[in-house]
């Protein structure tokens, strides 16, 4: 079944609505919807503003009122068929009398999907896949999480040019420049969870809050997750009331990610030390690596990356570089270089975990 | 004293002549010269083609013949006042009846300089300093060498993202991508000397020849210098007849550079292992650092940089980044990143050596 130029144009508009800046982050995908009258003119627009608020289709239907009858709904994600905090969009579209639905990305969520089928059964014309790649790009992490059943993991580390994270006496403030530290806070804010090990909490006592350029904490903070068997001393900064904190009493990365996924977490920013990173890396649970290289030589001191048990060059972990960004230093600070990379196959890497049945759109 | 628009235009042309591509590299500076008639029209042009061939002024005078009388010589470097393989340009300009000389860079060579003074004494109008910065840029390494009395040292090393140059079993072929290795050959060709230690010759047995993209050796090869007290086994590849080789029987970087400078060497490409690099680094004898970062993790194995005796982060060697270049990999190879840097003050760094009286323009 084909689509009209008006529908394609409406889909581009719906994609822009989905990507509206400032929409609160949460476990739900970003979705936009445009309702078109039979003559191709726009009846109403809508988009989703985060968990608990109406889905894009319902938002648009509410604005359209009776004018939705006979309209075509152009929506960036297949309408859901699931009752979470809100009812199924498929039923809302049927109740409003929509006669045709054009969607982009098929719902990857095993629980919520099936809206297209439901609508077709009820006699509505349904076309899927229009600009689907662009729609997936809007919800890259959500798509990853619902299809693989675990959060996407970004491992961040800072290193000197010679692979050190601290000097021989343990001093490490600061290997990274101020520009690199600010950039790290920007990346933290794009995730919903920061994860460290109990050892990092013990030794470094980080606050793990996300701060803006003025060093003020943001209003919305990611979850602080600490993993490991050791008890946390009650005076640790990660236990203050500036953000929510969860202690995951496991050393197994799969278990930790499953626990976070059960809490609707989709994007983990792994900031622990080399040992924690090694556990995720060797388990094949690192999806992205962000490295800040400081143009500094120490010659000795703590290694930025732990012994991975790699004996020969052929077993090295190769990373695909997707971005290189130069972060100029000001006030005489070092220029740092940020590399963003994707791991290739890792020795000992396990297969993908089974998708979880946890509902993703609530 | 001021210069005319015709003289400024002629100087820009002389700078272009000085930088003529394909001129053989050698110990001499690149120089261009334009002779202007009193009405500002060009009488003749010349440039220097390498040691043993006429200097730029003499080249231009020969082309001008009798028309040089009363002309203005616009030249990118102060005319020399020294008899090497060719006679002093100051005398040649006087003999030709040139009435005015405009030069850019003052001759930094303690032996050859004084041409401007000699010409003034003989009644010629002399103006120096026009576009001097651009002229220095044409001969950056030469200017460094003649003013500091030693060759400029570029230290190159390749490293994994975690600071390793080889895996735990010693295997290191290849940490760098093919693109990075080709780029290294390009940089080698810009130097006049490659320097390694006897240990590298013993262990790695490198040919130390410069090869082109087809892996063929170039016609003109830099000097191969090996430093250290140990004798070289006669079957070592560095001793073959594909290029000249010198064995510097010293462990002292100052001594090694003095010996190379005495051989008219101006740009050393330091490719030895971490121990040799440390000796130069701690002696303050590294002027440029070129690092190829391979997006690869080993977790263990030989460190790319030796223990520098740095105990605390405040003593780290900071490098100023002047360039970051991404070298994309093809055929599934890693993308490498090249950082070009200048060392800041180094702990234990010694003061600059005394300029040597060795003649530089021969």
Automatic annotation (TrEMBL), chains A, B:
It catalyses: 5-amino-6-(5-phospho-D-ribitylamino)uracil + NADP(+) = 5-amino-6-(5-phospho-D-ribosylamino)uracil + NADPH + H(+); 2,5-diamino-6-hydroxy-4-(5-phosphoribosylamino)-pyrimidine + H2O + H(+) = 5-amino-6-(5-phospho-D-ribosylamino)uracil + NH4(+). Its cofactor is Zn(2+). Residues 5-127 form the CMP/dCMP-type deaminase domain. The keyword NADP applies. Its EC number is 3.5.4.26, 1.1.1.193. Keywords: Hydrolase, Metal-binding, Multifunctional enzyme, NADP, Oxidoreductase, Riboflavin biosynthesis, Zinc. Pathway: Cofactor biosynthesis; riboflavin biosynthesis; 5-amino-6-(D-ribitylamino)uracil from GTP: step 2/4; Cofactor biosynthesis; riboflavin biosynthesis; 5-amino-6-(D-ribitylamino)uracil from GTP: step 3/4. GO terms for molecular function: 5-amino-6-(5-phosphoribosylamino)uracil reductase activity; diaminohydroxyphosphoribosylaminopyrimidine deaminase activity. Signal peptide: none annotated. PROSITE patterns: CYT_DCMP_DEAMINASES_1, CYT_DCMP_DEAMINASES_2. PANTHER family: 2,5-DIAMINO-6-RIBOSYLAMINO-4(3H)-PYRIMIDINONE 5'-PHOSPHATE REDUCTASE, DIHYDROFOLATE REDUCTASE FAMILY PROTEIN (AFU_ORTHOLOGUE AFUA_8G06820). This is Riboflavin biosynthesis protein RibD.
């Amino acid at each position: 079944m084909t689509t009209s130029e008006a529908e394609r144009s409406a889909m581009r508009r719906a994609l822009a609505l989905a990507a509206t800046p400032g929409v609160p982050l949460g476990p739900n995908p970003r979705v936009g919807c445009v309702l078109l009258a039979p003559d191709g003119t726009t009846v109403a627009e809508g988009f989703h503003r985060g968990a608990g608020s109406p889905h894009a289709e319902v938002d648009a239907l509410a604005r359209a009122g009776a004018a939705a009858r006979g309209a075509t709904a152009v929506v960036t994600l297949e309408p859901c068929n699931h009752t979470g905090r809100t009812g199924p969009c498929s039923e809302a579209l049927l109740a409003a009398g929509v006669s045709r639905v054009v969607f982009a990305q098929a719902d990857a969520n095993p629980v919520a999907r099936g809206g297209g089928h439901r609508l077709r059964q009820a006699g509505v014309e349904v076309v899927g896949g229009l600009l689907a790649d662009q729609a997936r790009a809007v919800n890259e992490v959500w798509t990853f999480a619902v299809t693989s059943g675990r959060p996407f993991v970004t491992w961040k580390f800072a290193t000197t040019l010679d692979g050190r994270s601290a000097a021989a006496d343990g001093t490490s403030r600061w290997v990274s420049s101020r520009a690199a530290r600010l950039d790290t806070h920007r990346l933290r804010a794009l995730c919903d969870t920061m994860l460290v090990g109990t050892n990092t909490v013990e030794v470094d006592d980080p606050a793990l809050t996300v701060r803006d350029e003025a060093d003020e904490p943001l209003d919305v903070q990611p979850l602080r997750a600490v993993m490991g068997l050791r008890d946390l001393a009650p005076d640790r900064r990660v236990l203050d009331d500036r953000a929510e904190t969860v202690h995951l009493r496991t050393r197994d990365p799969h278990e930790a990610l499953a626990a976070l996924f059960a809490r609707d977490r989709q994007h983990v920013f792994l900031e622990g030390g080399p040992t924690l990173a090694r556990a995720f890396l060797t388990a094949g649970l690192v999806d992205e690596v962000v490295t800040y290289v400081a143009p500094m030589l120490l010659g000795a001191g703590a290694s930025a990356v732990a012994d991975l048990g790699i004996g020969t060059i052929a077993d090295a972990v190769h990373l695909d570089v997707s971005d290189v960004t130069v972060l100029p230093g000001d006030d005489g600070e070092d220029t740092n270089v940020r590399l963003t990379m994707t791991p290739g196959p890792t020795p000992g890497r396990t297969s993908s975990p089974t998708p979880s049945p946890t509902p993703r759109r609530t």
